[in-house]
Each structure stands twice: as structure tokens, then as C-alpha cells.
Design brief:
405 residues, Rossmann fold, formyl-coa transferase, domain 3, six-stranded parallel β-sheet, three-stranded antiparallel β-sheet, 18 helices
Length: 405
């Protein structure tokens, strides 16, 4: 079997909840040996997050936790016990990466801050993913995905201008910008280490990747002191651009028109008579009558099956997509199926479980989740014996005495 892109890379993962765990999941799915450091004394709260397999709660039954932690091994260490810290140091001596997403100062208190670890492993790549970074007046602020989205102003741009902010319906920073930026930063550091042998400290404030997604409002205010408000579905250069009903209960299609030819093709498909509206033949004219056009389009799209209409519009080069729910994405999305995005893996307690594939593929080889998420402390004996040099008797004694729990 051909080695995966990150085969041989060793990562000790102190992350929990969303963005940090997804960062290391991306690397684990690419072949890195990711050891997730946990403790029954202080559980990763994602282990207690619904949905649960079979509707039965349990530390090993969270689908949310499982999806964020595929291809990893789990160990339990009491980091408040000096013996636990020493064992963590032994694991880190020959690893490539240590990752965390705690508030600044937490890792130092646990005895695994960058300064301490770089002494025992000078080539270490160390990444911290706090909300505001290690420096500055707001470094100690605690925040999660929804906090970061609000703090950066991202939530304020979501919604219609005449209404309050709607948000995105999820902790968007945890799922896209922050884990992807962090994983890319680690990959760059690994490449640098391969060339030079040198490690790096990466201090990634999670607010920064979010701000990179809204450059126009930031630049407008910085340069012109102009605040850009919410615009709903409107976007300069597009008219019409919206989400319209289709047949069935709560079924919708998004359509985005950026050229006069696309408008003519849309008219021809929805209702040839629409082509008679010559006054809407240009972008400028359509932009003046959006409410009327949206109402007309909605009456026509409501008569169509969403997938049939999407297919016809896409064949003509008109950007359109059915607004899909979770069932649609898993069961019916042809692109997801073609990319083998959804993977079923056998979990030790939950049985056959569904996992996300990565948001990318390689032409050279298949990549994705290699095995299911671990049970809490599932790999204690395996890791502590092979990586920390402990005997079976020593492991049991340390567990009984509360150092490895």
C-alpha cells in the first residue's frame, strides 16, 4: 500500500471541541499518527454533545465528536499529576507537532507550553489556536465559534437589511476557516522542517482567518470609514440573485444571474413568455425591479421539481442549486457520491457510523477517514507501552493511582 501524504508524521493533540479537533482530523485522515490527549477528569465537552448514536447518551456515542476525531488514537492523562506531565513529555520528545486550542497560558500551567517543550524537542512544531492569540490586551478572552463570528462582525453581515442579523445556523468558524487555515499552517511548517530541521511556534488567533473572509467590509471601513450593512441575497453585478420556492414542502432553489444571456436562458426555461419583458434585458434595468422580478420567478419556480429545474438551468450555464438538507446531502447528492465524500466506518460502540471525507481529493491516491473515532482512552496500553516505554504493570499502577485517567 502506498504511504499516505502524512505517513510518519507524529502529532500529540491537546485540542478539544471544534476548530482544533477538526484541524488535527484533517491531518489524521491524511495519514498522520494523531494521539489525542484526553482525561476522564476533564472531558472534551464535544463527547457530551448530541446527536448520540441510537439516541443513547454516552461519552463514546456522540456523532459530533466522532466526526471531528476520525483516524485518531485516544489516551487519558491527568495533566495535574506530575507523573502524567512527565509521560506527556516522553510522548512529545520525538513527535513533530503539538496542537492546542486553549486560552493563552493554559498549556503553560499544564507543563506543556512551548518553552518547556522546545527544550526537550528543539524541532517541535507547536500551534496554539486561541480566540485572540497569545499577545495583546484581549489575549485572555475565552471564545468559541459563535463568539468569534460575532466578535469579527461576521454575524452582522448575515441577513436582510431590514431585519436583525440571522447568523449562519452553525459555528461557522469552527468548520471552515479556522481548521483549514491551521492545517495549512502546520503543513507549511512541516515542509520547512523537512528542509531545515527547524521547528516553529505558530500563534493563530482564530479571529484572523474569519476577518480574511470579509475583506471588503474591513477595507471599506479602514479606508473610507464606511460601514457596509447586510444585503441579504443581493450582490453587486448579479440580478436577480435569490432563493426561490420549488414544489414540495419547504423546498427551495438558489439562482444567481450575472449576465444578460443567463437571464434570457432563465426566461426561456421558466416561461418563454418571460422573454417578452425586454425592459429587463440588461443588468442595470433588472437591478431596478428586483422585488417584482423575484415575485415573478417565485411563482414560476414553485411549479417545478427543484432537481429537475436545477439540471435544466445548469445545462444552459445558469448558476443554480437546490437548497439541500442533511438527508439530501447524504442520500441524493450526485457530486458527494462521485467524490465518495461520505464514509461508513465501524465504531467500537456505535457500530456502522457515517463520517465526512475531506473537502479535497488527490489525483494520485484516495484520502479520507482511515478508521473510526476512538473510545475514551482506547489506546492507553498501546501508546504508553510503545511510545512512552511503560510496562503493563506500570500502566495499571498509574491508572489505579489517578495519573493516567
Amino acid at each position: 500500500m502506498t504511504d499516505l501524504p502524512l505517513s510518519g508524521v507524529k502529532i500529540v493533540d491537546f485540542c478539544w471541541i471544534g476548530a482544533g479537533s477538526y484541524t488535527t482530523k484533517l491531518l489524521a485522515d491524511l495519514g498522520a499518527d494523531v494521539i489525542k490527549v484526553e482525561s476522564s477528569k476533564s472531558l472534551d465537552s464535544l463527547r457530551l454533545a448530541a446527536p448520540y448514536a441510537g439516541g443513547i447518551a454516552g461519552v463514546n456515542r456522540s456523532g459530533y465528536f466522532a466526526d471531528r476525531n476520525s483516524s485518531k488514537r485516544s489516551i487519558t492523562i491527568n495533566m495535574k499529576d506530575p507523573r502524567g506531565v512527565e509521560i506527556a513529555h516522553n510522548l512529545i520528545r520525538d513527535c513533530d507537532v503539538v496542537a492546542n486550542n486553549f486560552r493563552p497560558g493554559t498549556m503553560e500551567k499544564l507543563g506543556v507550553g512551548f518553552d518547556a517543550l522546545s527544550e526537550i524537542n528543539p524541532g517541535l512544531i507547536y500551534i496554539g489556536m486561541s480566540m485572540n492569540g497569545d499577545e495583546g490586551p484581549d489575549r485572555s478572552m475565552l471564545g468559541y465559534g459563535i463568539t468569534i463570528a460575532a466578535l469579527t462582525g461576521f454575524l452582522g453581515y448575515s441577513g436582510y437589511p431590514e431585519r436583525g442579523p440571522t447568523g449562519t445556523g452553525t459555528n461557522y468558524p469552527d468548520h471552515v476557516p479556522n481548521p483549514c487555515h491551521a492545517a495549512f499552517a502546520i503543513m507549511c511548517a512541516l515542509r520547512h522542517k523537512r528542509r531545515t530541521g527547524m521547528g516553529q511556534k505558530i500563534d493563530m488567533a482564530q479571529t484572523e482567518p474569519m476577518l480574511s473572509l470579509i475583506p471588503t467590509p474591513v477595507m471599506e471601513y479602514s479606508a473610507n470609514k464606511r460601514v457596509i450593512g447586510r444585503t441579504g441575497n443581493a450582490l453587486a453585478g448579479y440580478a436577480p440573485r435569490g432563493v426561490y420556492p420549488t414544489s414540495g414542502e419547504d423546498r427551495w432553489i438558489a439562482i444567481s444571474i450575472s449576465s444578460d444571456q443567463q437571464w434570457r436562458d432563465l426566461c426561456q426555461i421558466l416561461e418563454p413568455a418571460l422573454g417578452a419583458y425586454a425592459r429587463w434585458g440588461t443588468l442595470e434595468r433588472r437591478a431596478m425591479d428586483i422585488p417584482e422580478i423575484d415575485s415573478l420567478i417565485a411563482r414560476k419556480t414553485a411549479l417545478w421539481d427543484g432537481y429537475e429545474l436545477m439540471g435544466k438551468l445548469q445545462e444552459k450555464g445558469v448558476p443554480a442549486g437546490v437548497v439541500q438538507n442533511a438527508r439530501d446531502l447524504v442520500d441524493d447528492d450526485p457530486q458527494m457520491r462521485h467524490r465518495d465524500h461520505w464514509r461508513y466506518l465501524q465504531h467500537a460502540e456505535m457500530g456502522d457510523s457515517l463520517y465526512n471525507g475531506p473537502p479535497f481529493q488527490f489525483a494520485s491516491q484516495a484520502v479520507g477517514p482511515r478508521f473510526a473515532a476512538p473510545l475514551l482512552g482506547e489506546h492507553n496500553d498501546e501508546v504508553f507501552s510503545t511510545r512512552a516505554g511503560l510496562t503493563t504493570a506500570e500502566i495499571k499502577q498509574l491508572q489505579d493511582e489517578g495519573a493516567l485517567v
